[in-house]
Amino acid sequence: MPNFNDALLFRDTKEFSTQLKHAIESLDAGHLPLHRCVNQGGQVDASDMAVTVLDVSEVQHAIHARVGVFFTEVVGGCSCGDEPFEQPVYCELGVTIDRQSGEAVFNVIESAGQGDVQS
Predict the structure, then answer these.
(1) What digits encode the pLDDT tens for the residues 9-49?
(2) Which residues of 7-35 are buried (b: 16+ CB within 10 A; e: fewer)?
(3) Model-level pTM?
(4) Contacts 24+ apart (CB under 8 A), 58-62
(5) In sequence order, what DSSP letters do the residues of 8-31 get, joined into one string?
(6) Which domain holds residue 53?
(7) 96: which of 34, 42, 64, 102 lies 20 to 30 Å off by Cα?
Protein backbone atom coordinates (compact mmCIF):
# COMPACT_ATOMS: atom_id res chain seq x y z
CA MET A 1 0.00 0.00 0.00
CA PRO A 2 1.48 3.39 -0.98
CA ASN A 3 2.48 5.73 1.82
CA PHE A 4 2.26 9.51 1.48
CA ASN A 5 3.73 10.65 4.81
CA ASP A 6 6.08 13.02 2.97
CA ALA A 7 3.16 14.73 1.22
CA LEU A 8 1.25 14.94 4.51
CA LEU A 9 4.01 17.19 5.88
CA PHE A 10 2.57 19.85 3.54
CA ARG A 11 -1.10 19.13 4.43
CA ASP A 12 -1.90 22.63 5.67
CA THR A 13 0.02 24.49 2.96
CA LYS A 14 -0.51 25.56 -0.64
CA GLU A 15 2.16 23.01 -1.61
CA PHE A 16 0.08 19.95 -0.67
CA SER A 17 -1.41 19.47 -4.16
CA THR A 18 2.04 19.71 -5.75
CA GLN A 19 3.53 17.26 -3.26
CA LEU A 20 0.62 14.84 -3.75
CA LYS A 21 1.02 15.07 -7.55
CA HIS A 22 4.73 14.22 -7.29
CA ALA A 23 4.09 11.40 -4.81
CA ILE A 24 1.56 9.75 -7.14
CA GLU A 25 3.72 10.23 -10.23
CA SER A 26 6.65 8.57 -8.46
CA LEU A 27 4.65 5.43 -7.65
CA ASP A 28 5.09 2.23 -9.60
CA ALA A 29 2.06 2.02 -11.91
CA GLY A 30 1.10 -1.28 -10.26
CA HIS A 31 -0.05 0.68 -7.20
CA LEU A 32 -2.69 2.48 -9.28
CA PRO A 33 -5.83 0.84 -10.75
CA LEU A 34 -5.00 2.12 -14.25
CA HIS A 35 -5.75 -1.30 -15.78
CA ARG A 36 -9.42 -0.54 -15.07
CA CYS A 37 -9.21 2.58 -17.25
CA VAL A 38 -8.01 1.08 -20.53
CA ASN A 39 -10.53 1.23 -23.37
CA GLN A 40 -9.25 -1.33 -25.88
CA GLY A 41 -8.14 -4.17 -23.60
CA GLY A 42 -4.51 -3.14 -23.97
CA GLN A 43 -1.65 -2.81 -21.54
CA VAL A 44 -0.88 0.23 -19.38
CA ASP A 45 2.27 2.16 -20.27
CA ALA A 46 2.77 4.62 -17.43
CA SER A 47 6.26 5.70 -18.48
CA ASP A 48 4.89 9.13 -19.39
CA MET A 49 2.16 9.28 -16.73
CA ALA A 50 1.05 12.75 -15.67
CA VAL A 51 -1.18 13.57 -12.69
CA THR A 52 -3.37 16.60 -12.05
CA VAL A 53 -4.86 17.17 -8.60
CA LEU A 54 -8.48 18.22 -9.18
CA ASP A 55 -9.88 18.44 -5.66
CA VAL A 56 -8.79 17.90 -2.05
CA SER A 57 -10.95 17.70 1.06
CA GLU A 58 -10.36 16.63 4.64
CA VAL A 59 -12.46 14.65 7.08
CA GLN A 60 -11.58 13.74 10.63
CA HIS A 61 -9.15 10.88 9.94
CA ALA A 62 -8.46 11.12 6.22
CA ILE A 63 -7.74 13.32 3.25
CA HIS A 64 -9.73 12.67 0.09
CA ALA A 65 -8.44 13.79 -3.29
CA ARG A 66 -9.68 13.47 -6.85
CA VAL A 67 -6.90 13.29 -9.41
CA GLY A 68 -6.78 13.12 -13.18
CA VAL A 69 -4.26 10.68 -14.64
CA PHE A 70 -2.95 10.75 -18.21
CA PHE A 71 -1.13 7.66 -19.49
CA THR A 72 -0.76 5.53 -22.61
CA GLU A 73 -2.55 2.30 -23.51
CA VAL A 74 -0.65 -0.10 -25.77
CA VAL A 75 -3.07 -2.21 -27.80
CA GLY A 76 -1.87 -5.43 -29.41
CA GLY A 77 -1.91 -5.61 -33.19
CA CYS A 78 -5.15 -6.58 -34.84
CA SER A 79 -4.61 -5.10 -38.29
CA CYS A 80 -2.96 -6.56 -41.34
CA GLY A 81 0.50 -5.63 -40.12
CA ASP A 82 -0.26 -6.88 -36.60
CA GLU A 83 1.58 -3.89 -35.21
CA PRO A 84 0.57 -2.72 -31.74
CA PHE A 85 -0.59 0.86 -31.46
CA GLU A 86 -0.68 3.38 -28.64
CA GLN A 87 -3.49 5.64 -27.59
CA PRO A 88 -3.68 8.27 -24.87
CA VAL A 89 -5.95 7.58 -21.90
CA TYR A 90 -7.34 9.87 -19.23
CA CYS A 91 -9.09 8.69 -16.10
CA GLU A 92 -9.97 10.08 -12.72
CA LEU A 93 -8.98 8.39 -9.49
CA GLY A 94 -10.08 8.96 -5.95
CA VAL A 95 -7.39 8.66 -3.30
CA THR A 96 -8.03 8.40 0.42
CA ILE A 97 -5.02 9.06 2.63
CA ASP A 98 -5.11 8.06 6.29
CA ARG A 99 -3.87 11.11 8.22
CA GLN A 100 -2.19 8.97 10.92
CA SER A 101 -0.41 6.31 8.88
CA GLY A 102 -0.09 8.08 5.51
CA GLU A 103 -1.37 4.96 3.74
CA ALA A 104 -3.31 5.61 0.56
CA VAL A 105 -6.09 3.70 -1.16
CA PHE A 106 -7.07 4.41 -4.77
CA ASN A 107 -10.33 3.88 -6.62
CA VAL A 108 -11.43 4.60 -10.17
CA ILE A 109 -14.06 7.31 -10.45
CA GLU A 110 -16.45 6.23 -13.16
CA SER A 111 -18.21 8.74 -15.38
CA ALA A 112 -21.18 10.60 -13.91
CA GLY A 113 -23.97 8.41 -12.63
CA GLN A 114 -21.98 5.17 -12.48
CA GLY A 115 -20.45 5.52 -8.99
CA ASP A 116 -17.01 4.47 -7.78
CA VAL A 117 -15.25 1.19 -8.46
CA GLN A 118 -12.97 0.04 -5.63
CA SER A 119 -9.49 -1.11 -6.56
Answers:
(1) 999 899 999 999 999 999 998 999 999 998 877 889 889 99
(2) bbeebeeeebbebbbebbeebeeeebbbe
(3) 0.84
(4) 58/11, 58/99, 61/98, 61/99, 61/100, 62/96, 62/97, 62/98, 62/99
(5) HTTTTSTTHHHHHHHHHHTS-GGG
(6) 5-118
(7) 42
